[in-house]
Design brief:
- 68% of the residues lie in helices and 4% in strands.
- By secondary structure, the protein is mainly alpha-helical.
- It has one domain (4-135).
- Strands 1-2 form a two-stranded antiparallel ribbon.
- It is globular and about 45 Å long.
Length: 149
């Protein structure tokens, strides 16, 4: 069975995460950080509700602003990466609300760096972790990397 992932949808998602978290830092807005984390976690739990990907699907792609880039790939590692990032952003919000701005912004910054690594260099750190957990037989990490054709 061919499994497909639209890399453009992933890249738009990453660009929104990066842009909004950088804006949150510039505005010192914990609520914007919380919004990004909520979007990430909701999009992981219910992919059809992923706001940033829906923006791509319903606005950017139909307008011709971003072209689809469909590749054979497993979607699960990408959802794992986003979910893990969402948890890190949630921890950033907790730290910011607890009066620990250095910790909070460092955690948000880590998500920005990892999303940028994927967006600009094509390396998904969360996918790498997912596939390592699969390799070690950790339950729930059922998909191996697909063979390149």
């Amino acid at each position: 069975m061919d499994r497909k992932v639209d890399q453009s949808a992933l890249k738009v998602n990453q660009a929104f995460i990066i842009g909004l978290l950088l804006l949150a830092y510039a505005l010192d807005s914990v609520w914007l950080v919380a919004f990004v984390g909520a979007v990430m976690l909701l999009g992981t739990a219910v992919p059809s509700l992923s706001l940033f990907k829906r923006t791509y699907q319903h606005l950017l792609k139909p307008a011709g602003l971003v072209k689809p880039d469909i590749v054979t790939d497993n979607p699960e590692p990408h959802r794992f990466a986003q979910g893990f990032g969402g948890v890190v952003v949630a921890l950033a919000v907790i730290a910011l609300l607890a009066g620990q701005p250095l910790v909070g912004w460092a955690l948000a910054g880590l998500v920005v760096v990892l999303a940028a690594l994927n967006l600009f260099l094509g390396f998904c750190a969360g996918c790498f972790v997912y596939y390592q957990l699969n390799r070690f037989g950790v339950p729930g990490f059922n998909h191996s990397p697909l063979a390149k054709s």
